[in-house]
Write a structure and sequence with these properties.
alpha/beta, Rossmann fold, 2 domains, six-stranded mixed β-sheet, 9 helices
Length: about 260
């Protein structure tokens, strides 16, 4: 397993989360969560299933409202935006869904053209072709241009899902469990793609995962979500070197089976 070199990032945070709370009825998911993510950084949010990782990035994308707290993305207070302002911010945020969210009735080409046609109605076919080919080359699947999603492997669907997100040139990428359900070799390919996307498109990313291998390969820093709050934030070595039995158990679950 190859771990990326930690990238040094400077400048102001592009994501600020402060004192965030979110509950569903009596189920308290996020409890006083605070985090800053710097421009150009790959931040991994680690935690077990049901720990609130996906809830967190849905709040960042404006898909859920927080109960309390401050959420700022690219200088905008997400929870205060509505209508066109929220839509404009979402165009700057790429959301790579866990299930890839492809339209099974559309070819790969049509899936990739769809967000462009929705948001850039003036584009000509040759411009659509150029954009589609660029992102397919970026994810290494230009030969799948005319295939249907049902003909693709799980790893290929993940790559196409990432390509469809990249086609709008987002400044921030949100990856929801990018290696879930994939074999180790395909997972390693997706992890490397996340690293490559940051380098090629200069994105800032939050990677939601319970896969420690994914965290080690993709992350500059790791935020460990336990009991609704970040128990530790730092490099993989710093987080898993902390004197915290729950974090040690999480490490052992991943690597000692």
């Amino acid at each position: 397993m190859k771990q990326q070199e930690t990238k040094q990032v400077d400048g102001d945070p592009v994501i600020r989360i402060k004192n965030l709370y979110k509950s569903f009825g009596d189920l308290h998911i996020l409890k006083n969560v605070s985090l800053e993510v710097m421009k150009g950084e790959n931040m991994v949010v680690l935690g077990r299933s049901g720990s609130g990782k996906s809830v967190l990035i849905k709040i960042l994308a404006g898909l859920l409202l927080p109960d309390e707290g401050h959420v700022e993305v690219l200088g905008k207070n997400v929870d205060q935006l509505k209508g066109k302002e929220l839509d404009a911010l979402r165009l700057r945020i790429g959301f790579s869904f866990q299930n890839s969210a492809l339209y099974d009735s559309m070819s790969v080409r049509k899936n990739l053209e769809f967000p462009l046609r929705m948001n850039n109605k003036h584009l000509k076919q040759n411009e659509l072709n150029e954009a589609v080919e660029e992102v397919l080359n970026a994810v290494g699947l230009i030969d799948k241009l005319e295939r249907m999603p049902g003909d693709l492997s799980g790893g290929q669907r993940k790559r196409i899902g990432i390509a469809r997100t990249l086609i709008l040139k987002p400044e921030i990428m949100l990856y929801d469990e990018p290696t879930s359900g994939l074999d180790p070799i395909t997972s390693e390919e997706i992890n490397q793609l996340i690293v490559d996307v940051r380098e090629k498109y200069n994105t800032t990313s939050i990677i939601i995962t319970h896969d420690l291998t994914c965290a080690k390969i993709t992350g500059d820093r790791v935020a460990m979500l336990l009991d609704g709050n970040f128990a530790e934030v730092g490099t993989v070595e710093e987080v898993f070197g902390a004197d915290n039995n729950q974090i040690k158990q999480f490490f052992n679950y991943n690597f000692i089976q």
